[in-house]
Amino acid sequence: MKLTLKILVLGISLLVFSACNEDDRDNTIPTIPTTKTPSTSINKILPLGASRVEGARPKFESFRYELWKDLKENNHTFDFIGTESDAGTYPPFNSMNFDIDHQGISGWISGQILNSVSGWLDQTGSPDIVLFSSPGGNDGLEGLPYAQAVSNVNSIIDILQAKNPNVTIIIEQMAPGRSDIMTAELTSFFNQMQQEVLSIAINKSTATSQVITVDMFTGFTDSLLADDVHYNEAGAEFIATRYYNVLTNVLEQ
What we know:
Layout lengths: L1 H19 L3 H4 L16 E6 L1 H4 L9 H10 L5 E2 L3 E2 L15 E4 L5 H15 L4 E4 L4 H5 L4 H18 L4 E6 L10 H21 L6 E5 L17 H15 L6
Parallel strand pairs: 1-2, 1-4, 1-5, 5-6, 6-7
Antiparallel strand pairs: 3-4
Helix pairs in contact: 4-9, 5-7, 7-8
């Protein structure tokens, strides 16, 4: 009996140790989304991406809360949409509660987003504006082929435009990870994608659907990160401000 108990305690200890050392970026399991009624608001905004969209308070921040406050403070009418709901705790702002809807799933690579985006849009309805966060970022972190990431990003945009030919897509030239993780391979991926995004915006824009780039990397420093790749509060505010400066020119009044 004593031997069995010791084995059981050892097993539990190893399980807890293993769970505590898993990489949140790669192993976070999203909550099962609840069915949501499609929004009828003007300026339906879909924050799309992975953990930088999702956030994980108090460990690290999403830009969404800071952007939401900026938009509310300036009296814009809008609605964040998505099948996911933020489980974090956020203070009310001007007596309003944070809009927790989004489409970010931690650890997801571009291929997973591509395979799921059509189904997500069937549930939420088509957005008017998409905030496409860190395109291909997790592909680079996982060492996946650059060409495939680019193909997936283009295909995601194709689906968004097919669902709504008038959609505006704001796509990031993404902020880097912390300097000490930016290996030669990751830096090459990062630099190529920054230039690729400019080409994607030109090639995918149509007469009715703008694809607009937003520079998130110029001026972004390690001091804006909570860990290897995720934003702290200052970093979230930095990204939100860059988004807001673009949104003010495209939001329907």
